[in-house]
Prior knowledge:
Layout: H1 21-36, H2 38-52, H3 69-74, H4 76-94, H5 99-116, H6 122-138, H7 145-168
Amino acid sequence: MERMQGDGEVDHLEPPSPLTDKERVMIRDSWAKVYQNCDDAGVAILVRLFVNFPSSKQYFRDFKHIEEPEELERSVQLRKHAHRVMNALNTLVESLDNSDKVASVLKLVGKAHALRHKVEPVYFKILSGVILEVLGEEFAEVVTPEVAAAWTKLLATVYCGITAVYEEVGWTKLSTSTG
Length: 179
């Protein structure tokens, strides 16, 4: 059963404390293993998102009507988007020591998803949970509970950054305001 909170509103969250040096190392080390399988991991993440939260497909005209997970996995458009997601995550991981670069990536992603794609911000929170779930299952040997905690902190930071961009651009619940 799909459950969502927020009704399109932007959460007003306090960002988590900055990542420690140890947490940055754990994230980078685990990501090196994940990124070796970047395309498969990205597809697994998006397929899990769309299967568990089918309303998230509404933003993807090329595959929003595909129901079967196997068919989603074969979708060229889904694979392309999965690759973009993984590359954005890679840029964030590579830039953990450069807060300006991280802010720049989050601003770019946030503006595109708020203004062009009109994606409800809650989907970034949902996607964060799906990323953690898939990494923990598919890469259990490197994503230990301690590493997962570091990833949780990073993805909470990402979510806070994205929602800040949504607020900055004056996000309103455009996608369902007429329905």
